[in-house]
Amino acid sequence: ALVNFNMLVSRSSHVARSSARASSHVSRGASSRGASFLGASFLVKPLNVRSTPSAAAQGSPSVDAQEDVLEVECDSDDAEEMCLGDVPLGPSIVGGVPVETRTQVLSEALPYLQKFRKKTIVVKYGGAAMKDPKLQDGVIRDVALLATVGVQVVLVHGGGPEINSWLDKLQIPVQFHNGLRVTDDATMDVVEMVLTGRVNKNLVSLVCQNGGSAVGISGKDSKLLVARRHSDTALGRVGEVSSVRAELLSDLVNAGHIPVVATVATCEQDGGALNINGDTAAGAIASALKAEKLILMTDVPGVMQDKDDVSTLYRELDVEQANILERDGIIAGGMIPKVQCCKDSLAAGVAASHIIDGRQPHSLLQELLTAEGVGTMITP
């Protein structure tokens, strides 16, 4: 479990502060940039720190706002020879990370672990993090870790690349309309087969292999998700969620299981299957559960002033600020439905919604268990 905390070194870490001072000084407001030293990779980010659970209650920031420091990820095996600037790391390194750094990271994660224990977190998992086996393994390990320390995780997944692969094998055309998959009857058969079969059961198996207890279900099981056909009839068998059987998921998480939900719903008109957008399904589930958090794992860092410049990432927005950014065209294109999903969940009682980059290793843990996070947090 400690290995998964390697990337949680935060700005409040005394070790990270020492490392920063030994290697370089970063001025306030510096833009994000990467560097490496003897196999250890660093990410320097602008100071934009959210409050820790304890600091928030006192109305004060969680770290000294006088300087930026480094977040550190170490992956070198040269334990006996590694040093950082003038700070020798020596034989006290385990797995490429100093023991004192590991313990500091765990200590700093404690208030977040306490805050989220027995709280429900809904995670929408998809995109590149599902295609890359290494990223997939990291996400699943992080989900299992969170469940092990008492966080009630509901994992909602897509499976677009796998669906496309099978449609290609079966010579069924792949079509999209306004960002949504056009789903005729033949396509719906493939979507249901892939999502509820191959993808869902593979994820369940991976969670169990990593020590978690996962139960794979689809929206059709016990009418977990009931939907009506989308108002745009050109989309075919695409649905909009009309009801969620939240008690089914509550029973599973309260019994210590991780529900792994495939986003296929029961059509309220004809009882058949409907294809549901993964973000939309996760938002509806989080809303029904009154979850503590909704986390959308995507292929972008979050909401950015300039979509091509990660240094312009907004770390935290409220709904009013998000509305202004959308009005001004900064939130545009595919980010609009994601932000709308977040706003809808907040209106239904979810405490906070997050958009994070699933391509970044351990982004889920960093977003939940550090003061600054790695993506965009949207609050009421």
Judged by helices, strands and strand pairing, the structural class is alpha/beta
Query: What is the global morphology?
Result: globular
**Compute the gyration radius: what is it?**
21 Å
Number of strands: 21
Unreliable stretches (pLDDT < 50, length at least 5) are: 1-49, 55-91
Short description:
This protein is an alpha/beta fold and 380 residues long. It contains twelve helices and 21 strands. An eight-stranded mixed β-sheet has the order 12-15-9-8-18-20-21-19, sandwiched between helices. The protein has a four-stranded mixed β-sheet with strand order 14-13-16-17.
List the helices and strands and how they pair.
Layout: H1 14-23, E1 33-37, E2 40-44, H2 53-58, E3 70-74, E4 83-84, E5 87-88, E6 93-94, E7 97-98, H3 99-116, E8 120-125, H4 128-131, H5 133-148, E9 152-157, H6 160-169, E10 176-177, E11 180-181, H7 185-209, E12 214-218, E13 225-229, E14 239-244, H8 246-254, E15 258-262, E16 264-267, E17 273-275, H9 278-289, E18 293-298, E19 316-318, H10 319-327, H11 335-347, E20 352-357, H12 363-369, E21 376-379
Parallel strand pairs: 8-9, 8-18, 9-15, 12-15, 13-16, 18-20, 19-21
Antiparallel strand pairs: 1-2, 2-3, 4-5, 6-7, 10-11, 13-14, 16-17, 20-21
Helix pairs in contact: 5-7, 6-7, 9-11
